[in-house]
DNA sequence: CACGATTATATGTCTAGACATATAAGTCAA
DNA sequence: TTGACTTATATGTCTAGACATATAATCGTG
């Protein structure tokens, strides 16, 4: 072991500049609207080139913490309170992350020409073929969620022959259709007879509903409705901003 | 009007490079795991300096579309399906965005020393002062949501004297406490007597519940519970990734 | 063959310039 | 006072280099 103290593992300069400024914004020292120092002032303060401070400021602008205006300068933005990052994990991953045993059960699978209701659910015009799947996810043998899914076979032909009796359709799609976009709608209902039975809860008990509609470059892939017992399941979203 | 066609307003070079690569990833031409060309290859292809392609690749890495490994290269990442951006707007903004008339009504306001229940809800140890507020938001005179809020006065002393009879506490806090962090929990319940009356729905009807806990550099600010009629209100989240 | 040392290489960061461009601010005329 | 024109300036992008650093691949040795 050397006698000289090892230098603390300093982050790179541009990261330090970014962190310095971020701290002042987050603590309120530089409130919304405050003009942060010009690039050339930061260059002087940190003794580096403009590209270095530019990289720091560009990243802050990308994170929506500051707004950069030509000729005017860079300004602290007002907090962006309207968006939160909601973690919607794969159900299997969610359950195993809780340290519980994952169980999957296929309840029904039908291959059919899309009905009017199917077409509306998938948001398509043409009456192509679809697969309708109903299944149940459980944690330690206790029902965790029931899934009701429609897959558009004109976009994912392979789904017609996939074996969903072992593998959940969500996982299968994840590995066969990369980089989709999706829209989630969250609502609440009370359990009807069928739902109550599937989830092993009382009729009239609250259920949290997640409807997910997934597409890939303007092509519909799948529409899924997930029903969770409302008093047990909780979705947690964290975000930054007022 | 000139006879020469105006040049299309080209984006800058690094943006074009980024878009080119992004397109190949999103269309599946370069699937997850695919090694994208080395920086020096892109330099040759686009006839620019390395800093330019580096900027494009760095942004793709920041967006989690690619992973960069020293000595090995840059690789297309697997889709990050687990996070969605959930828009949780200010209720007033949400209602006016729907083109409906916003209404606000203060139901109750109490200033008290934190009870044990208050302390647990706020996640604090000490029994300081708090304000408890109950209010209702409506759209075109129809109840839209009821709010039940607790504000920690040791963090936000001004809230003790703020007038919440006209301004909703959410808006007030937004303008007085910038850049907080928050955690949302979403669940479902059925309406009890009081909730049913406040929302003008039937007892036993489903309600969507959002619990939001807000802090600022380790200091609790506020805890709020929002109750929405479950069959009418819908939260929409969009995201990218499988 | 297993394992440690060496080397090659792709990315990470940085510099000291350059020109482009949007726009705030100033100037001047109607 | 108002509107049109000019100018100054901060940011946006880019270059052609440089050295640092992590690590995949290779080489040597026991």
Task: List its salient traits.
242 residues; alpha+beta; Arc Repressor Mutant, subunit A; Chorismate lyase; elongated; disordered N terminus; DNA-binding
How would you describe what is shown here?
- In chain A, 26% of the residues lie in helices and 36% in strands.
- In chain A, α1 (13-26) packs across α3 and α2 crosses α3 (50-62).
- Chain A is of the alpha+beta class.
- Chain A is built from seven helices and eleven strands.
- The relative contact order of chain A is 0.12.
- In chain A, β2 and β3 form a beta hairpin.
- Chain A folds into two domains: 13-76, Winged helix-like DNA-binding domain superfamily/Winged helix DNA-binding domain (Arc Repressor Mutant, subunit A, Orthogonal Bundle); 87-238, Chorismate lyase (3-Layer(aba) Sandwich), CATH 3.40.1410.10.
- Chain A has helices spanning 13-26, 39-46, 50-62, 91-97, 116-122, 169-176, 193-199; strands spanning 35-36, 66-69, 73-76, 83-87, 102-113, 129-139, 142-152, 181-190, 206-216, 219-229, 235-240.
- At the A-B interface, β4, β8, β9 and β11 of A face β4, β8, β9 and β11 of B.
- β8 of chain A pairs antiparallel with β11 of chain B.
- The structure holds a DNA duplex (30 and 30 nucleotides).
